[in-house]
Write the structure tokens for this entry.
Amino acid sequence: MNTAEYERMYRLEDSYWWFVGRHRLIEALLRDRYSMAPDQTASRVILDIGCGTGAMSSRLTKWGKVVSADFSPLALQFSRRRGLSHLVGADAMKLPFASNSFDALVAMDMLEHLPDDKAALAEFARVLKPGGRVFATVPAYPHLWSEHDVALMHFRRYIRTEMQERFLESGLKIEKLTHTMMTLYPLVSVQRKLSARKPASEHPQAAMPMVPTPVNSLLTGLLSVENTLARKSGLPFGSTLLCVASKT
């Protein structure tokens, strides 16, 4: 991503509804699968790959030792400002870690940034311990491609069957594959279509419109309800895809 987007992310990640809802979803999925007992967290090692400005890594510290990795030195600078210490410059397509190193791996909205996502997933499978899990989110639907994706330097948006194939090809067993961000999908779709009609901008910007605090709280609550449904039964459509997969 460009410098301006990292700065926006750093300012917004702890409060903006989109980020908060996504972080809480990953935390809930972890809570469903892992104990938070001190003897368990003391030995658990989690890789946050594509950690960005570090907000998710900060949350993950409740579940174990967190290694925060990103290809961008700028991202790691922002993560350091959050007080994170286990920071690694890393190419997700060729991870600098030994095989069977991690109990869990979180990859939030980063596979779409890679020219070779298949290589990255093979690396995820390699560095996970047997029984370890990947928790990944990606943007859904190529028809939603817009200035937002250009600003964030995406290579692609995914459809569900493509996501499924990618994970299975890497040798990972899918535990859950569902859409999220369902309720707001119609609004996102309209916004992206309108954006596509605008003249190309020299400085494309991600679609994160600021909203009043009460609206931000309402949207955060709405995503909490959606997250529960996504965890329990799955959602049929939405602007994001979530996959939880394990190494056998």
